[in-house]
Design brief:
There is one protein chain. With about 375 residues, the protein is α/β, with parallel strands linked by helices. It folds into two domains: about 1-265 and about 350-360, P-loop containing nucleotide triphosphate hydrolases (Rossmann fold); about 270-340, CBS domain Like, CATH 3.90.1280. The chain is about 40% helix and about 20% strand. Helix 7 (about 135-150) crosses helix 8 (about 165-180).
Length: about 375
């Protein structure tokens, strides 16, 4: 069941916004509206995010991704459409009710760390709890636990300017975690960091997610980051969502020429998995007889293709592929691996140009 649902969200800046939406629905494009003095930042965006999922919204500057994020917690009011969280229509709440939701259920981690320079690391991490009115002893306990989760144990009494950029961003993450919010919104949270620190923060987030299972919407302009973090990814262009799917969906089945051009330089061996290219076999004892040698090297459906080269370098046998419970489900041979890496991504005819009705239901 989805925790977060966006239904036909529009955000139009300028005069006669309702009229602009009608024009967009009738086929007027974004540039034509801009010539009239109206900016369509987000156009008919629909998606769902399931509990415990990292949902990444990816797009270049000006695609509308940050505007979309700010509509999810009411920082921006949609011109049209609804946002539902746990079935509650956030767009129908009064300002005071919406502030309560933001204080208790939804936390946001910004690109720029937004730390208070005159407060210690612990006080910064506890700030959201202070806003909630949590007593000092409890908020310091919870903030200390969150800092430990974020890898900052021992830095509680330090000042923000004593920390590196990556450590400062960890404080921002700890502040969001301390509130125990149900939904984390992360807006280009790692993009200001150096590449190595950025990867460390991605590792940290994935590690935390394995234990905390938060529901996260993560905004980025970096396709590699999107594919590394996202359980599902929405690709935005000119205010519209043009495709939603897993990293493998987008890499193997791009919906538009725009998406296909985006993924040309992606390292397929790091995104595609054994499960994506395997030849399915019968399960159980029949698997070996159906092409998986009894003593073959075993990998899982989640093993990246990059990790298949080593076993193939020591054996000519196909690799046996198992599911999460260890049950044999398929095999991968050397020819299948090389073919998958050499294959050029092609736009799927059924979704060429972006089937937005399909996009609305795939998240």
């Amino acid at each position: 069941m989805s925790r977060l649902r966006a239904e036909h969200l529009y955000k139009v800046f300028g005069r006669r916004a309702d009229q602009a939406i009608a024009q967009l629905e009738a086929g007027t494009n974004r540039d034509e509206l801009r010539a009239q003095g109206t900016t369509a930042a987000v156009i008919d965006a629909s998606f769902e995010v399931e509990e415990g999922q990292i949902f990444v919204v990816m797009g270049l500057s000006g695609s509308g991704k940050s505007t979309l994020l700010r509509m999810l917690n009411g920082l921006l009011e949609p011109t049209s459409g609804r946002v539902l969280f746990d079935g509650e229509d956030l767009t129908a709440l009064r300002p005071r009710e919406l502030r309560q939701v933001r204080a208790n259920k939804i936390s946001m981690v910004f690109q720029h760390f937004a730390l208070f320079p005159h407060r210690s690391v612990l006080e910064n991490a506890a700030y959201g709890l202070e806003v909630q009115g949590v007593p000092r002893e409890e908020r310091e306990r919870r903030a200390t636990e969150a800092l430990e989760l974020a890898g900052l144990q021992g830095w509680e009494r330090s000042w923000p300017d004593e920390l590196s950029g990556g450590m400062q961003q960890r404080v921002g993450l700890a502040r969001a975690l301390a509130t125990d919010a149900d939904l984390l919104l992360m807006d280009e949270s790692f993009s200001a960091l150096d590449p190595l620190i950025r990867r460390d923060m991605q590792d940290q987030l994935l590690q935390l997610q394995r234990s905390l299972r938060k529901t996260i919407v993560f905004i980025t302009h970096d396709l590699n980051e999107a594919m590394r973090l996202g359980d599902r990814i929405a690709v935005m262009r000119d205010g519209r969502i043009v495709q939603i799917g897993t990293a493998e969906d987008i890499l193997v089945r791009p919906a538009t020429d725009y998406v296909a051009s985006f993924i040309q330089d992606v390292d397929r061996s790091r995104v595609l998995t054994a499960g994506a290219i395997m030849r399915e076999t019968k399960t159980g004892a029949a698997a070996a007889a159906d092409g998986a040698p009894e003593h073959a090297v075993t990998v899982t459906t989640e093993t990246p293709l990059a990790e298949l080269f080593t076993p193939f370098s020591t054996s000519e046998r196909p690799l046996a592929v198992t599911d999460g419970s260890g049950t044999p489900v398929g095999v991968v041979d050397r020819e299948r691996l090389l073919a998958a890496l050499a294959e050029e991504p092609r736009v799927q005819p059924s979704v060429r140009g972006g089937d937005r009705s399909g996009v609305s239901t795939r998240a």
